[in-house]
Structure formats: C-alpha cells, structure tokens
Design a protein that fits this description.
CATH topology of chain B: Immunoglobulin-like
Mean pLDDT of chain A: 88
Radius of gyration of chain A: 24 Å
Low-confidence stretches of chain A: 1-27
Largest sheet of chain B: 5 strands, mixed
Number of domains of chain A: 3
Number of domains of chain B: 1
Mean pLDDT of chain B: 64
Low-confidence stretches of chain B: 1-16, 158-261, 270-275
Strand order of the largest sheet of chain B: 1-2-7-9-8
Structural class of chain B: alpha+beta
Structural class of chain A: mainly beta
Distance between the termini of chain A: 44 Å
Helix content of chain B: 10-25%
Shape of chain A: globular
Shape of chain B: globular
CATH topology of the largest domain in chain A: Jelly Rolls
Helix content of chain A: under 10%
Number of strands of chain A: 26
Number of helices of chain B: 6
Distance between the termini of chain B: 54 Å
CATH architecture of the largest domain in chain A: Sandwich
CATH class of the largest domain in chain A: Mainly Beta
CATH class of chain B: Mainly Beta
CATH superfamily of chain B: Lamin Tail domain
Oligomer: heterodimer
Number of helices of chain A: 4
C-alpha cells in the first residue's frame, strides 16, 4: 500500500505522458443485492491483452503506462479485498504459460518482476498500489472502500466514472517477456459498511517516491523542515484526517527493515510495518542498533515464496516478499487534528554501495466518520470534553475502550464507566484488585507481558502503564456506583 | 519490490592483477544504475589522475581523474547508465560519480551487463605500461582478457603556456593532481560523463609520447588523461564521438585545432577572471 498523494501524483504523471488507452480487462458484473462477490480482472495494453513484449538484454520497461478502466465493481459497492499479481501472458517462451506468476522465476535467470502497479479513481485518488511484494488490501471486518454512484452524494465529483491502472515492470534479464496485471477483487453490494479514508505518508518528496540511502544501517525520516535532499517534511494531520487508524501497511525495498509512523505530538508509534524475506536472504540483516517499536531488530524471516528467489546469488537473493500490517495500539492509533506524524524507514544496506532508489511509504486507513459523542467536530479520541459527565474525558474513554456517551454499564459486557472495570456499576475492591494484579505492566504495543488497555484509565491523556495513577483514579471513586 | 533491479552481482577476481591498494570491491551489472565500488585499502592517499575504469568494449572507459585523491580506507562509487547521478553525489559521506548517466532508460548507456562476458577493470594508466590493478566480472563471467597496452603514437610536445594540453575526458582543467575528495572538489568536477567522447587527443593519435614524458607529474596527452587507443593493430580509437573531427581535419589538423581551442578557452577564462 502506498501513499495516496504519491499515487495521485504518479498517476497524474501517467496521464500527462501517455494517452488514455482502450478499456481493457473484464467488465465487472452489475451489483447484486446483499452479496459478496469475487472477480478476477486482467489488464494489458496490447491487442492480445498483454503488456509487452518488454525487452530484455539490459533493458527494462520503465514506462508508467495508464489505461482507463471501469471501476473494480459497479457502484454502489464496497471493495473489501484486492489481491494483486503479475502473470505471464502470450510470452514468447512457451514454457512460461499463460497465467504463470511472473516474478524472477522464469527460465531467464533474471526474469521480469513488478516494480509496482497503481490503481486510481477518476479524481486520481488512490484505490490501490502494490509493489513486487504484492501487498494485499484487506478491509477490517465491517469496513470497505465505498464506490459511490457518480454524481451522487457518495461520489459528487464522479470519481468513479472511470478509473486508471498504471504499472512499472522491470525486465532486467536477457529475454523479452509478455505479461499482464491480475487483480482478484472482493466486493460487497446491497449492504452498508463503514467507509474508510486514508492518510498517505512518504519519506521522499520525489514523484517516484525514491530517495538515496547510504551503505550500512540508516534510519531516514521526515522532519519539521529542511530535511535534506529529497526527504519530506513531517505530516500535520488535518481535521478531515483525524480519527483512529484501524489498518495500515507500508512499503520498503530490498534491504529494508521496516517503515513506521511516529506521532511526534503524542509521543506514540502509530504504525510499524515490517518487511518479510525468505529465511537466509541476503537482504535479511539485523538492525545493529538497540531496537524500539519503530525500528525493529530485523525484518521478518519467512518461508520463502518461490517466486521471490532470484537465481545466481550467494547468499541467496530472496527478494522482499511481504510487508506486515501495522501493529496498532489503542493509544498509538489515535490521530488528532494538528498532530505531527513522522515517517521513518530503516534499512540495512549491505549491497556494497549507496542505493539511490530506496522507498519508505505508509498508508493508513481510518473510518470516514469517527465517533464524536458531543457532535462538536472533534472526534472522541481527541476531545477533552466529558460528554457523558462520568468524570472521564472523551479522549480518555476512546483509549480505555469505554463509551464517551454512556456513563454506566447496561450489563457486564457494556464498558461505559472507566473505573468500573468489571462493568458491575460499582467502583470497588474487585476493580482495584484487577489493576493491582497487573500493576506496573505496560499496555500494548509494549510487551508481552502487557496489561489490557481497559485497566489503563489515567491520566486524562492516558500513559503507557498500569500504575499508581490508575489505582488513584479508582480509589478516588471507591464505593461509588452509577445508574444506567 | 526490489531496490536493486537485478539484484547485486557481487563480482569476483578472476585472474591475478598488479598489486595496488586501490581495489574494486563490488560490481553490480544488473541494477539501475549499474554500480561499481572502489576502495583505497592502503594506508596512504592515492591520486587517481590518469586512472581509468575500463569494461569489455574499447569505448567503455571512465576517467577517474575527477575523483582526485582518495584517502586511505575511503570508498567511492561509479554508477553507470539509467538513474546514475547526473553530477557527483555524496551519500553518507561517500561520493558517487556518474558514468553515462541518464534519467531516461537507454540500455545502450549501460557499460555492464550480466551477459556472461562483461567485466570492469581498474587501470593505472598514469604511466606506461598501464597497470591492471583490479578487476571484477559480472554475473556469469568466467574469464577476463588481459589488459591491452596503448599503442605509442607521435604527439606534439606539451606547451609551457598550455599545461592542460592533451585534455581530459571529464571536462576538468587537467590539474587533477591537486584535487581531493572534498565538497569543493566535487562541485567543480561535476562533468564526469565522457567515456566515449571528449578526448580529441586520443582520437587524433596525440598523447602517448607526451603521456610517457609527463607520467611523473601532471598528465597530459591522450590515453593517460582520457580515453586511450587500446588496439595495437590500428584498432578503433576510443573517442568515437569525436572521430569525425579527426577524419575531417586530419590528425595533425585536429591536434592543432584542439590546442587552439584550449588556448582560446584559457584566454577567455583569464579574461573572465579579470572582470
């Protein structure tokens, strides 16, 4: 997943440079009522449905082509999953049969691979973007990307009249190849899901999102200003962006360890997305520095996906094949208007020389309409009001997990009043005992071991530990009850 | 996606080379850009005036004079072709020089490919005979041919009033012996992209004698300071882009023309300095 702004810019560039091509691929089926549908879509710009031939012999298709395509589903619909791929199609080599995954593992020892593909709507807003690790887009349960009917309140600018798909495919081998893009898309119709919005963040300023890293370990991050050649400034959250991050992921290149987002204002880590390589990969190297939540000790060693093995290298070249989803926490996931977000990308570059095309990109997904108990335009996670007058600010309850507009539990499974840990409508010894049992432990993302966020009720902007502030908050209300 | 398009082909020495503290430590013949890493493994600085990188084809020569002096333990890099830096670039304190740099993909600008035969060779051409001091093969390359020595040819003697005569492919002013790897040096030595062009002296046959005569000091003349004539049997000169000039004017005429142009440049420079 990548940065919306970058994608928009990139896609915009595609459109400026290249004429809009024919509509290719399969026409999505009309929406069904209350149904979940999965379709497989293919895209190419040649009459036979392929992309290419993409020349070998030291060449590479660096062109960022773009096709106008129908939306992945006919509006109104919610996209809940997109699985990207690159497959051979009409390749000159008969051994590379139609539909075979194209990813280094062809007969050519340095085969063809997907630098990235990008899907944008007609307003050049990101729909999807994947690198060769082919990150899957998966909405959390109950959420989806709404494709509104063009001209309707859900799509007032008719962004879904048509979409665009672009690609950047490398062929660093010697043989020519023909391929096509593949997207497996799941969408829902006839239902109402929670709509998602995005925040896109990028280490680099360049339209192509690339920046240079030195040899060895590096942590390149955005900064307030004058961050160095090609490095972005920090992102300041807008009112439209505020909310709770519910999903996210990032993108780095080979030798990358992780990309992370730090909320400088709140001193929290919002998201850390970690690279994954086949065990034993030359690109899988440890972080030589003490790790922290935003700078892991290493990327993830995983079972090799065969397509990511490139022959001819010792140690083996198992290219980056995965990026983990963000490890979100109750506190770190909250972003408020004016918060400063800083993107870090950590690499351990043992390639023998500086790398000029590193990337560090993160995309965060948030509900379009975050809860706002008092309707003042400030979502609960950032609101210092106490809407339900239970003695705890809305922002506290957003982290603790109680309801900002409910001051008393209706039943034992209705968290409403922060000091009433067991939701029995009293603050008593049973609640205090729950906290003392985990006294001193941190709350996620720290640990394990860690204590539940539900036990971390103080101070008003809650900290990272179950400690004396939390005990005091309960003892100060000892013996009190509430009425639903 | 992979940061290094074709991965990094860690090269390996295939045959013995002349002893030198300066060594090629890596060659990547599949990435965009192609990458060559060089390190001074010795304890003393090394002036690279007259040194070259040479690949498998006669016109694939990069003049390392612009690098100046490399301190002990210092790495520097030459990146080639697509996405190579257009001007010298410092990343993490290490310099990268562009060889045939281009922002647009043109496979013909690559001098290295993982085709089973390609290689890179570091040559001390500051005096005759040239010394092949380090070499690495690309992925799959199993044999690197021996270095061919330049063919001695007649040349006019250097002029006292034109110490830079003989030229340099890098567009520098010839006085490479005083440059060092510093910000100032890099900012003035930006024009590095001339592997197959710019050495009129070589194309006109000038140089070798003068080069030999001046080997211990500032280098002037063709092969040593730029692109040399490698073949012994009247093979193609390496400064292919300027060859038509030689054909039109004749060897002697071109040499005289070059000297005249440089004299004019210096006169202009002096004039500008005086403003």
């Amino acid at each position: 997943m990548k940065r919306i702004a970058v994608l928009a810019a990139m896609t915009g560039a595609f459109l400026l440079v290249f004429a809009v091509g024919d509509r290719s691929g399969l026409q999505p089926t009309p929406p069904a009522e209350a149904a979940e549908t999965t379709v497989t879509l293919f895209y190419g710009n040649q009459p036979d449905g392929s992309i290419g031939p993409i020349a070998g012999g030291g060449g590479a298709d660096e062109n960022l082509l773009s096709l106008a395509i129908p939306p992945f589903c006919a509006p109104p619909c919610y996209i809940t999953s997109i699985v990207p791929d690159l497959v051979y199609w009409k390749d000159p080599n008969p051994a590379l049969t139609d539909g075979m995954i194209a990813n280094y593992n062809g007969a050519d020892p340095q085969g063809i691979w997907l630098h990235h593909d990008a899907v944008a709507d007609g307003c050049l807003q990101t729909v999807f973007l994947a690198g060769n690790e082919r990150t899957v887009y998966q909405s959390p349960a109950g959420y989806g990307r709404l494709l509104g009917v063009p001209g309707s309140p859900d799509d007032p600018n008719s962004c879904n009249f048509q979409w665009f798909v672009g690609w950047h495919i490398h062929n660093s081998g010697n043989a020519d190849h023909k391929v096509r893009l593949k997207f497996t898309v799941t969408y829902e119709t006839g239902v109402t899901l929670n709509k998602l919005k995005g925040i896109g963040l990028n280490v680099a300023t360049a339209v192509d999102a690339e920046y240079a890293i030195p040899t060895g370990y590096s942590d390149t991050h955005t900064c307030p200003s004058n961050c160095g050649t090609g490095i972005n400034t920090d992102h300041v959250v807008t009112a439209a962006e505020q909310g709770r991050v519910i999903a996210g992921g990032g993108h780095v290149h080979d030798w990358g360890i992780a990309v992370s987002v730090q909320n400088v204002t709140r001193n929290e880590w919002v998201c850390t997305s970690i690279g994954g390589y086949g065990t034993g990969s030359r690109y899988l190297q440890p972080n030589p520095n003490p790790p922290d939540p935003g700078h892991p000790a290493s990327a993830n060693a995983q079972t090799l996906i065969p397509g990511y093995h490139q022959p001819g290298f010792t140690p083996p070249a198992e290219h980056i094949q995965n990026m983990s989803l963000c490890n979100l926490s109750a506190r770190g996931s909250i972003v408020c208007t004016g918060d400063v977000l800083r993107v870090h990308a950590s690499y351990i570059n043992l390639s023998g020389g500086p790398i000029l095309d590193a990337m560090g990109i993160v995309s965060l997904a948030l509900p379009v309409n975050p809860p706002d108990a008092d309707g003042d335009g400030v979502w609960d996670g950032c609101d210092t009001s106490d809407t339900d007058l239970d003695g705890y600010q809305d922002r506290t309850e957003a982290v603790v997990g109680t309801q900002a507009n409910d001051n008393c539990a209706d039943n034992s499974s209705d968290p409403a009043w922060p000091p009433d840990i067991n939701n029995d409508r009293f603050t008593d010894i049973t609640d205090i005992a729950a906290l003392t049992g985990v006294f001193g432990l941190p709350v996620p993302p720290a640990g394990p071991p860690s204590a539940p966020d539900r036990y971390n009720v103080a101070p008003l902007q809650v900290d990272g530990f179950v400690d004396i502030t939390d005990i005091s908050s309960l003892t100060g209300r000892f013996g009190l009850g509430c009425t639903p | 996606m992979a940061a290094i398009a074709g991965g990094v082909a860690l090269g390996y020495a295939l045959t013995a080379t002349a002893a030198s503290d300066l060594q090629i430590t890596l060659v990547d013949c599949g990435g965009h850009p192609r990458r060559i890493a060089i390190q001074n493994k010795g304890d003393a600085p090394q002036n690279l005036a007259g040194w070259k990188l040479m690949s498998d084809k006669p016109n694939e020569v990069f003049d390392l004079g612009v690098v100046g002096t490399v301190g002990p333990g210092v790495n520097f890099y030459v990146y080639n072709g697509h996405k190579a830096p257009l001007t010298p670039l410092q990343i993490g304190g290490e310099w990268i020089y562009g060889w045939n740099p281009s922002e647009i993909l043109d496979p013909s600008l690559f001098v290295l490919n993982d085709d089973g035969t390609d290689f890179i060779r570091l040559v001390d051409a500051s005096q005759l005979p040239w010394r092949d001091v380090s070499r690495l093969g690309c992925l799959g390359t199993t044999e690197i041919p021996p270095l061919e020595q330049p063919t001695p040819t007649a040349t006019p003697p250097p002029s006292n009033t034109d110490p830079g005569a003989g030229g340099n492919t890098g567009g520098t002013n010839g006085d490479q012996s005083t440059t060092t790897q510093s910000d100032a040096a890099q900012s003035t030595g930006a024009s590095q992209n001339a592997p197959a062009s710019g050495n009129a002296a070589a194309s006109t046959g000038a140089g070798t004698a003068a080069q030999a005569a001046n080997a211990s000091g500032q280098l002037v003349g063709g092969p040593a300071s730029g692109v040399g004539v490698l073949s012994s049997g009247g093979g193609p000169p390496l400064a292919g882009h300027l060859l038509p000039l030689g054909l039109l004017s004749g060897i002697a005429g071109a040499a005289l023309m070059l000297m005249a142009v440089r004299t004019l440049r210096r006169a202009l420079r002096r004039s500008q300095d005086g403003l």
